[in-house]
Amino acid sequence: MRIKVSHQTEYTYAEPVSGALQQVRLWPVDSPMQRVTDWAVTVDGGRVEAGYSDHHGNQVRLVCADEGVQALTISVEGEVETADTSGILGPVYGRAPLWYFQQPTALTTAGDGVTALADSVRNVTGDLDRYHALSGAILDKVAYVLNQTDMATTAEGAVSQGSGVCQDHANIFVAAARHLGAPARYVSGYLFMDDRIEQDASHAWAEVHLDGLGWVGFDVSNQISPDERYVRLAIGRDAKDAAPISGLRMGQGDENLVVSLQVQQ
Amino acid sequence: MDKPKTFFNEMIGNGTPRAPYAKYGSWFSAQNGDRLAQKSQEAEGFFRRAGITFNVYGQADAEERLIPFDLVPRILSNSEWTKLAKGVEQRVRAINAFLHDIYNRQEILRAGVVPTRLIAQNDAFLPQMMDFVPPGGVYTHIVGTDIVRTGADEFFVLEDNARTPSGVSYMLENRETMLQMFPELFSQIKVQRVSDYPKNLRASLEASAPPNCEGRPFVVVLTPGIHNSAYYEHSFLADQMGVELVEGHDLRIVDGKIAVRTTRGYRTVDVIYRRVDDDFLDPLTFNPTSMLGVPGIMDVYRAGNITIANAPGTGVADDKAIYSYMPQIVEFYTGEKAILKNVETHRCSEPEALKYVLDNLADLVVKEVHGSGGYGMLVGPAASRQEIEDFRAKLKARPANYIAQPTLSLSTVPIFTDAGLAPRHVDLRPFALMSPGSVDIAPGGLTRVALTEGSLVVNSSQGGGTKDTWVLED
Asked: Using the beta-carbon criterion (under 8 Å), do B120 and A99 form an inter-chain contact?
């Protein structure tokens, strides 16, 4: 499937900024699931000061807002050719070893809630069935509700609250999968939806590493494994690692964020 | 290890001075005691005027203290030193290779030589350093290896300080003080110079600049500020090297590089000798509340446009559980047996070792694996019954957090007291500089001395003092 993405993130500042930095991870990489045919990221109101491949293999750019601006816009225009691999990325490895994806992070440390979810599927036979069951158990416990959680919400926090969005679902999935002993990671990306072009936010799901299959994706929010409608952007151990944009701003004044996203065929 | 009845006295053997101390011994015996007492007073005044003080964590009433200086030098012969220096160089190279491996291919883990758990659960392991090689492949630009001696030819490494070893300013000031107080001594006895250290440090840092650096590399020293316990050393080293001392807010990103604010605008920085801990280095990547670092510096670093010395994440090699594998680490990367010995180390994470340690607490030194500076440790032979029982509870609660070592019979060197010379226990911290081409070790290093009779704890934070350390020319 050919997926066209148009994604604009605009920060506006009440006061002229004296320093705002954004770490940008908006470059999809080629894999058995996707081939990037056309991709451009442009910055308005700031400059790219550094570019590199990070420890998860994500392409990163450091963007600094220009002195005194009141708006910084990061725009993506691109096309990706995707394939349906039944959610299986396969044995695609970067430098980060598997044991690294078994370690908890601050956002994905299993507490009582995550542990209970993991234990509820521990005895399900068959790796794929077990993780599909985990995905189901998470959505049963944590309903998809907008605006109840934020970037700082931990997996455990979302479980005890009983609500969250795709980001929380993915954090919970990786935390629980690690509790079951499997290497697991967070994936940020885009999802083509059959019924709409305009979307409010990018998407997130999880991948777990299974013997014989390699990395396999699970989208808790939609209760499926990723198919040809998914575009992988960045990976990490949690939502923070794989955030498409994460920033820091010096100085006073309110910051406002407007995202516009179109995903279409 | 049996408890010794006597300790190796580095100055006096069989009632007469050992060879390295022969000339000094005859000079000393010709001195007038009152004059030396007078000199000892002068030395304190010298240090006070120079402002060489340090802060002790957890002691609010003693914000600035002077580290006591003893005027009797610690003397090593050239041949003793040559062997030591070779051992330190071997160890420093191995540690650098270890860090490069741990953050890239991890062959030592795959070979099963070091357990993966020790890296996976190590707080000092920085994932952000994975799949990246710092400029010139150098991680540990500066290393301070703590060495103890137990016999004429018995040297052991106690700790590898690959993070931000401090104390080199004392090595330099101690020598300067001795030269001022006893110039005649240095004309009678040929002692290897240490005064080249700042020049060598600067050259070594410059040699580690990013490959795309143009012209002479621009070096700065980054300090957390005047409230840091080692601020004196930061300003001293910047001054001695002839480079700028900066704080985080003096630096920012300009044209993809780190730049320092000067009276004539921003100037590109190529190498940062930072005395700010990893966690505080970059609020964008690490601790978001840090005001001490430079936002975005890790991105510039990964893009290859700045050298950070020492590299972030080197603390993984300082871990005391990793230490216990150092002989294997040296052999793995150098193909040679370790020249310097390790102290026998019991890893409390292992059930049999834990049992042994719990049964022998009164004879052992127990340390936290991530600890430093003599904090949070138990010195069994010096501890009360209650202290031992309290520690036993802590140890049982988190065994993997501790290692234990036998109480070492540290060598002694005399200090000058009102009653004449009196032996006190010492250790040695040589300072090694690593650049892409070479390892350079200042002759001698910092000798720390436990001023209390019988004490084995030499840390300045625990009441230790320092001595000038001499390596003889021949």
From this structure: yes
